[in-house]
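Repro:
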Amino acid sequence: MIHTERPVLASSGGKSFDSYLARPLSGAGPGLLIFSEMWGVAESKTQMAEDYARRGWCALAPNMFWRSAFTGVVPFEEADKAWQRLNAFDWARAVDDARTAAQWLRASPHCTGKIAAIGFCMGGRTAFLTGAHAGIDAAISLYALGIAKHLPELASIGCPTQLHYGLNDQHIPKSEIDAVAGAATGNRNVEVHLYPGAGHGFFTAGRPAYYPEAVVLATARIDQLLATLK
């Protein structure tokens, strides 16, 4: 049995930093921040939070677009609208918001205080930055756009970090992946995992890019890291 709710993590300028929380009905578990793609906290992410809650996690999916002109979920068919919102996204404020979400989750009586972050696409970049700046215990990024803009953080990030890339990603060129892998060389905390044949969005079931072979392998690696927080 699990409990779900939509807590407000903060507020500013008449807007609320909303989120989706799923946790076991009783007791405390490690915390998991789930950062969504540019679509927002869609059903795939609320279901993921619920799946982790059934496995004993206190899973929080923050709405990182709460400061945007449009704060809701963008339908998959309206990619232009999602890209427009992402292009206007304030990454400096996003780091502060991610830190707020991590602090809120850590303070929850339903969280043990151990926290990991997992993110997809732009959420993968957010998860990485949370690992670099918010004092969490592990960070997992899948097909993250823009980590190459944070190469110094790759060399210094102090928590165990996984970066997963499909080698057929139409949005992340191989040169960017190579730059990220090169910057991570020498930092034992960072693992870069590559998936031949997988494209952008390969982890989300029901999407055209879904690539089950890569999902099986990535899931095993993710579970291995997350098991260290229990």
